[in-house]
Structures are given as structure tokens and as C-alpha cells.
Amino acid sequence: MLTQKPLEGDPATAPARPAARPAADVVCWFEGDWVPLADAKVGVMTHAFMYGTAVFEGIRGYWNEDQGQLFLLKLREHYERIADSAKVLLMDHGETVDSLMDRTLELVRRNGYREDIYIRTTIYKSTESIGVRLHNVDCRVNILGVPFGDYIETGGIRCGTVSWRRTSDTSIPSRAKVVGSYVNPAMAKSEAVLNGFDEAIVLTQAGKVAEGSAENLFLVRRGQLVTPGVDNDILEGITRAGILELAERELGMRAVQRAVDRTELYLAEEIFLCGTGAQIVPVTSVDHRTVGTGGIGTVTSRVMAAYFDIARGRAPDYAHWVTPVY
Ligand code: PMP
């Protein structure tokens, strides 16, 4: 069952638990060297700061007390995705998937984390000059980690469809995890929360369901597991891909990936959101319509139980999901 409270959207905007140690004692990878987190600063003329020209990943590490081991969840998949995002933004950063994985493992070992953590990797356009473009701008890499503590179960969240639409592939592609594009989820999240909901549901320009502000969405309708297809302006979520795998293997449910109407959410038996930061979050109402019986449904609870077992390295059949650090 859920052991951690869903975060306030992506940890990009969530208040991470303050580091137990002063920032000066925590090291991060910054512009080609290991430096104290407190010294990792960029100038105000940095291209990424002025134009949002950076790509990023959020990666979770789960501490397993019994095994004395920290497991990084879907490490390779995150770096494959950042490579894709970097390609979309014409970034030549000199790193490979393997080099980023190695640096991340070294980061965690250097800091000696023995608790749940969140890692943030950013590749950013670092040239300090005015001029909006993608070409002829240098790139740098930053990897940092922060402890992520325990959160309390909420038992489900209330979602609201917002008036903002997801950026389309013809404006800022959602499948690339571009820093500047997160103004769109931020607009959505704040509209939902300021209107009294816990989380936003964002529609595509065509009015189909895309995703939450920082989570992909699954629903169960007439017993069938459904999720918006990748042609619905979603981020191609790593947790989403994992759930597609485990639903088939553990629940015998092959999810249908298709366009989803807003009113299908009102009539769904179950809905849950998923993402690295949010993990698995049951949705108990959408636009004031109760989802199913208003509790946590069977499919959702089974997905949650399996997911947390796998993430904490307790499921040998899913060893390919996790990378042990120590
Ligand atoms: N959609 C958006 C917009 C997100 O920011 C995230 C969080 N990365 C997700 C979906 C979920 O993706 P993942 O499972 O890869 O974390």
C-alpha cells in the first residue's frame, strides 16, 4: 500500500525535505567537476536561465534497510530519455548514457546516501550571451541529489480539468523534458490548486486527456486498463512504461493506449496518476465526480503494491528496473 504521500507535482516544484547536511558538505557534479552543492551556481546571463533551454530528468533512489542497499529506479531509461530530449534541443554535451549512469552512481557514493533520495540531472545551454536560438550554444551538465523523506498516506486525491491545454508537438514537444516547457504544467497545477483541487488534469489542444501536471494517467473503464497514447502530447513516462509491463505480467491486463475523452474520466471505475516524483497516486474524484466508489480500487492497489516492492529491490523478477548503488 501507499507508504509515501504523493508529492505536490514534480519534485521540480515540490519542497524537498531540507538536506540533513549543510549544502557545503554535499557534493554535486557541476560543469565537469565534483563541487560542493553550495558552490554550484550559474550566471544570470546563462542561456538556459534566460530562455529555458535546458533538459532534465528526476530519478528516484529507494533505500532498502534490510539489504543495506540503495536502488536507483530505471536509471538507464532516464538517461536514454535525457539523450532524446538533448537531441531535440540540438545539444552536444559530450556525455553518453553510460557516462551519466556512472557519474550518478559516483555522486550517490560520494555523498554516502543511506535513505530515499531524488536525483536531478540537467543538461543546459551554458553560453552567457543574448540571442534566442538552439544552435551555436555550449552545453554543460549538472547532477545533484537530495534526500527525500517519508510522506504520509493521503488515500487519494481530487483532480480538476484545467483550462490550459498541453503544449503540442507543433509548439514545444511534450515528449522532450525541456525546462522551459514546464511553465505549461506550472500554469495547470496552480489553476487546479488555487481552485481547490489537489492536482490538474490537462487536455490536449483537441480536448483529449493528456496527463496530470507531472504525471501520466491510467484509468480502468469497463474492466479495461486504458492510458492516453503517446500521440496525445504526453511525456512518454518511464513509470507509465513500467506500469504497462507490470500490469500485463502481474495483473494479466494489457493496457489499451488510445485517445481518452474527458467524460470517460467521470465514468471510470478507477483512475491513478503515475510518475517518478508522484509515484502511484489514486484519484478519487475528477471535476467533483466521484471516481468509482470513491476509494482506492483493486487494480490501483495491486499496481501500487507491486511498484513499491520493485522500487525497493524486493522483487527479483524485476531486478532489471533497479540499479544497486553499493
Ligand atoms: N508527465 C510530465 C509532464 C512529467 O513531468 C512527468 C514526470 N517526469 C511525468 C509525466 C511522469 O514521467 P516519469 O514516469 O518518467 O517520471
Distinct bound molecules: 4'-deoxy-4'-aminopyridoxal-5'-phosphate
Chain oligomer state: single chain
Question: What is the CA-based Rg, rounded?
Answer: 19 Å
Structural class: alpha+beta
Order of helices and strands: EEHEEHHEEEHEEEEHEHEEEHE
Q: How many alpha or pi helices?
A: 7
What percentage of amino acids are in beta strands?
A: 25-35%
Tell me the number of strands.
Answer: 16
Q: What best-fitting shape do the alpha-carbon axes yield? A: globular
Overall mean confidence score, pLDDT: 93
| Proportion of residues in helical segments | 10-25%
**Main beta-sheet annotation:** 9 strands, mixed
Determine the N-to-C terminus distance.
27 Å
Give me the secondary-structure topology:
Elements: E1 27-30, E2 33-36, H1 47-51, E3 54-64, E4 69-73, H2 75-88, H3 97-111, E5 117-125, E6 139-147, E7 157-165, H4 183-194, E8 199-203, E9 209-212, E10 216-221, E11 224-227, H5 238-251, E12 256-257, H6 262-266, E13 270-275, E14 279-286, E15 289-290, H7 298-311, E16 322-324
Helix pairs in contact: 2-3, 5-7
The structure holds 4'-deoxy-4'-aminopyridoxal-5'-phosphate.
The site of 4'-deoxy-4'-aminopyridoxal-5'-phosphate has 14 residues, from helix 5.
